[in-house]
Each structure stands twice: as structure tokens, then as C-alpha cells.
Design goal:
Blueprint lengths: L1 H5 L12 E7 L6 E7 L2 E7 L2 H16 L46 E13 L6 E12 L2 E16 L6 E16 L6 E17 L8 E17 L4 E14 L2 E4 L3 E5 L4 E11 L1
Antiparallel strand pairs: 1-2, 2-3, 4-5, 4-13, 5-6, 6-7, 7-8, 8-9, 9-10, 10-13, 11-12
Length: 278
Amino acid sequence: MISERLGDSAPQERSSVQASGRIERDPSGSGYRLELRTGAGERQLSAADCRELASSASLILALLIDPHAAPEAAELPAASEPAVVSPPSAAPEPEPEPRAGEPGEPTTPRSWRFTVRPELVADLGILPAVAAGPGLALGLRFGATSLELSGSYLPTQQVERPNGTGSVAELRAIGLQLGACQALLARPRLGPCLQLEYASLSGRGINVSDGESASAPVLTALLGLRLSVAFRDWLHGVLELAAGLPVRGAEATVGNIGVVHETGDLVGRLRTGVEFQL
């Protein structure tokens, strides 16, 4: 087909023009599309059938061999896209990276999050009876691991005299906990937690001649199991049950009465709350 177009001007020796092409169906379904690459650049053509594309390609190649041998070049159908003239070996320019925060651009989810959890803390072992009070936990979650710093308050309880004739003291406790949790299951999130708690057991004597206020530190290591259920991506419900041994216990004494309370040999802890992930 190229020789027919060149006629008498066809070179007797092998031409140095090199070309490659690929034909594929047009995405719109209206015909076919040819992507033709030569040493002069690249061109994309569209036609209703492959025969028309072959004719157009032969005309382009004939013009490359002899620009004056194919005056019918005006018959060449318009390219579906403007021709791009560039060296065949030139690499395409990389697309610009999307900037975070631009409207309509997808964002990659963060692998870490800050967490805030107001909670209710129930304790057995620090005060004379089961105690419940408010708490607040701040944490950093990355992957399946969580690190937390939390505080809790166990409100005042009264200590009765051994003979049951009235109260002899009132005690309360404030605790500070540092812990880490590892989720072994993802949905729901379930796994063990290890915490170290420093609590201050404080109070004063009542109805006694020597009722000065006093405080004593309590250091406890706790191992627990935490369950976290997602209500929303940013809202979770948390339930944790833990037990531990006081590394350092404490005693509460009142005047000449002596010791009125000792922390237990085993501490039980229940924590529940709503966690916000920021």
C-alpha cells in the first residue's frame, strides 16, 4: 500500500523509516483507534474500520519517506487527539501528587489516632468496700497497640469502729495509671492490657480526739482484658476487667486507735466508658 502511494518515487534501497503501531477498539464503541509511533513522533487516528486506519497509516509513512510523493495528504482523517511530537524514548512526565486536604482528592487514613475516654471506674481492694467513681483516659492508638495515661477518683467511704459503735475515719483514693493494650482481634477489638497504678489513699479520723488528715501511697500492677466495640469510626464503647497485686500496700491509722484499714492483697478493677478517636 505504501509502494502504491509512492509510485515511481519509491526508493530502490531499504528505507530507514521505522514505525510501530497498535490498533484497539475505541472506548466509545464507534470504531477503532490507531496509535502510530515513528521517529518523528506519535499520532493517534480514529476510523470506522481497520481498513481506513491502514490507509491513513500508509499515507503518513509515505509522506515520511517522500513528502512530495503523496499529494492526497489532505485526505488524511483528523486525529482523535492532537499529535504529540516527541522523541520515542522520552519518558512520560509524572503526574503531580495530590495535596492533602484538597476537595475531591482521596486521603490516606492515618495509622494512628488520639483517644479520649471518660469512664466509670469500680474498685475492690483499695478502700474498705467496693468503690465506684469517675475517670478519664488519654491515649495514642497506632495499629493494634494503644498507650494510655489515665486518672480516677474513688469517693469518700467511712470506716466503722471494730465494735460497730460508729464511724472512726473517712477515706478516699486518687489514682494515676500508665498502661498499654494490644488488640488480638480487630472486630470487635479484644486483647490484654497491662497497667501500673500509683494511688494516694488519704483521709482523716472522725469522732476521735486525734483526727488529723493523713495519706499513704499504693503501687499496684494490673493485668486485664479489654473489649472495644465500634459504634462509629470515631466512637467506641470500652469495657475492661482487670486484677492485680499491690506492689506496695498502705495502712490507714487513726490516733490511739491504730490501724483502721489496710489495702487488700488482691485488687479488682472494672472500667467502662465511651471512647472518642480524634
